[in-house]
Amino acid sequence: MKRLQQYYRRTVIAVTAGLLWPALFECAIAEELPKPYLETGTVKVGNVASVTSEWRATLTQQQRNFYEALLYAPGIEWNDGLPFDRLVGLFESRELDCMVAETFRIRPGVAFSENSILFEMVIFGRRGDNLLAKNTLTVGYPATLPQFEMPFSQPIEWYGLKTLKQGGELLKIGRIDAMVAHSGLFDGDRAIDRMPFPPVHAVELNLQCHDTPRARAFLSTFDARLDRERDDGIRTEGSSSFEVSMRPLTTDIVMNEL
Fold first, then answer.
1. For the chain, N or C: smaller number of CB within 10 Å?
2. Based on C-alpha coordinates, what's the Rg of the chain?
C-alpha cells in the first residue's frame, strides 16, 4: 500500500511538471525576447518603385533578394509607387516607419539596415539611333523620380512615365527618343539598347527606419534574412530561394496606398 502511494505521488508530480513546464518555458522565452516581438501591429514601409513581379524580374540577384526579404517580412505594411518627395515627406511626418532610400540620407534618430543595394540609372534608346544627331530630345523617366542631369547639349523635353512598361512601348513607337531607367531593364530586348553614355545616376539604397524598438527589431529580422540567404548560397534556376520556400506574395503582405 505504501509503495502504491509513493508511485501515485511520483506520477502526479511527473504529470504536473509535464503540464507546467511548457508554460514556464514560454514565459521564460517571452521575458528574453525584445518587447517589439511581443507587440502587435505592422511596420509601414515606403518605396519609390512599384515592386511588381515584372519589375523584380529585371533586377540583379542581390537587388531581388533585398526586395523579397522586405516583401515577405512578417508584419509589414508595404507602400510602393510613391513619388520621391512624398516618400520623404511621409517618413518625416512619421506616417511611415521605414523607407527604402539613399544611404546619404542617414542621420541621427534613424536606424538603418546593414545590407544595401546599388542601382545605376542609364540611358536607353532605340537600337541604331544616334541621339547626338537629333535637334531636340524627348526623354522619358519614372515620374516618381527627380529629373537627372543628362550628357546632351540639345534641349530636352521630359516625359514623366507612369510605368516602365509604358516607357518601353513609347520608345519603340518613337513617341520618346530616350528613356532613363535602371541598368538591366531591357536586357535581351531586340529593339531597345543601352546608349553609349555613362550612368546618369548611381544610387546606393538601404532600409531606413525611425529609431524605435519595433523598427530595430524589424531591421534585425530583415538583415538576418538577407545574411542567411547570402551565407547559404542556395539558388533555384530562374528564381531565388525566397520565391521557392515562401508563400505567394499576395498572402504575405499588407498593401496600402498612402
1. N
2. 26
Q: Across 130-250, where does the E strand assignment appear?
A: 137-142, 156-161, 178-182, 192-194, 201-210, 235-236, 239-240
Domain co-membership, 218 together with 94? yes
| CA–CA distance, 165 with 54 (Å, rounded to integer) | 9
pLDDT in tens, 234-253: 444 444 444 433 333 333 34
Cα gap 71→64, rounded to integer Å: 10
Shared-domain flag, residues 63 and 131 = no
Q: What is the DSSP string of 59-120?
A: S-HHHHHHHHHHHT-TTEEEE-S--HHHHHHHHHTTS-SEEEEEGGG--TTEEEEEEEEEEE
Q: What domain range includes position 8?
A: 2-32
| Number of structural domains the chain divides into | 3
- Do both 92 and 220 map to the same domain? yes
Which residue is listed with cell 544616334? Answer: 130
pTM, 2 dp: 0.70
